[in-house]
Amino acid sequence: MRELVLICPEAQAEALSDILLEAGVLSVSVEDADGDTEAERPLFGEPGLEPEVQAWHRNRVVALLPDGLDPALVLEQVRDAGQGDYQEGEWLLRDVPDADWVRLTQAQFQPIQVGERIWIVPSWHRDSPDVPRAAESASGAIHIELDPGLAFGTGSHPTTHLCLEWLAAHIHGGETLLDYGCGSGILAIAARMLGTACTQAVDIDEQAVQSTRYNAEVNRVDLEAMLPDALPDGQHQVVVANILSNPLKMLAPMLSNRVLPGGHLVLSGVLERQAEEVAQAYAPWMAMRVWQAREGWVCLHGKRAA
């Protein structure tokens, strides 16, 4: 296969990407053409939210061509769509070396240890000698088998680690638990492995619900995963929500009232600078305090009055 490389300004990057895909390329990536130079301009945005700026001043647009697709025809469609008349020397064609892409992709995802007890293990590492077997671990280690997917994370984010470590430190067995905004289901699955009883997982995304059910089956744990409308009335001894600050603030009344008297509320997906603002949203129901912070993120914990 080959890659067609074009340079375009900020305003053109999205439209050029669209017309390249319409022309039959397999994929398109957009990079900062000034990356690793003094002119490099980082783009920032809160995780889960779109940044205000969608591209750089100068963009390197890389289109992967399937075998047999003539780059001249692609460039012709680009020109006809009014997205640039690229002349000789203004575009680059380069070979993509053959590789075992599955193996290379898998090599990027290694087992992750979270605290002393929890291991997140991709399926291709389940028998790795580098991962202590749960049955042989003096610390009572648990293994969560989780493969990276298109829609949900691999369990590597600091907010996930903070929630997992809170669960490992505070679940003693038999608690009821609600994981709100479950994503891949990793927190609910970990909770069941740590000994919770009735465990429910909720997400507004049907794909997340399906992903949670699938991952629960893979890990041989029993839990209920559902959309919010299907969540029955009731309270839990532990409610955990790893989302983002804005939805957490909006959900404050509902999440707080889902906690049994004497129960625990655990929130993450919150930047350190947002911690006080989120805590204030929950103040009418319980005092929320920073349990731990990591890499600019915090885990907030509160206990509802008995």
Keywords:
alpha/beta; 2 domains; Rossmann fold; elongated; Alpha-Beta Plaits; 306 residues; 4-stranded antiparallel β-sheet; 27% strand; 7-stranded mixed β-sheet; 9 helices
Topology of this protein?
Blueprint: E1 2-9, H1 13-22, E2 27-32, E3 58-65, H2 71-80, E4 91-95, H3 101-107, E5 112-114, E6 118-121, E7 142-145, H4 158-170, E8 177-180, H5 186-194, E9 199-202, H6 206-218, E10 224-226, E11 236-242, H7 245-250, H8 252-257, E12 259-271, H9 275-282, E13 289-294, E14 297-303
Parallel strand pairs: 6-7, 8-9, 8-11, 9-10, 11-12
Antiparallel strand pairs: 1-3, 1-4, 2-3, 5-6, 12-14, 13-14
Helix pairs in contact: 4-5
Description:
- This protein is an alpha/beta fold.
- The protein has two domains: 2-98, Alpha-Beta Plaits, CATH 3.30.70; 158-303, Rossmann fold (3-Layer(aba) Sandwich), CATH 3.40.50.150.
- It is 27% helix and 27% strand.
- It has nine helices and 14 strands.
- It has helices spanning 13-22, 71-80, 101-107, 158-170, 186-194, 206-218, 245-250, 252-257, 275-282, and strands spanning 2-9, 27-32, 58-65, 91-95, 112-114, 118-121, 142-145, 177-180, 199-202, 224-226, 236-242, 259-271, 289-294, 297-303.
- The longest helix has 13 residues, at 158-170.
- The model has no long low-confidence stretch (mean pLDDT 89).
Short recap of the structure:
The protein is an alpha/beta fold and 306 residues long.
Q: Name the shape in a single word.
A: elongated
| Helicity, as a percent range | 25-40%
Distance between the termini: 65 Å
Rounded average pLDDT: 89
Q: Strand fraction band?
A: 25-35%
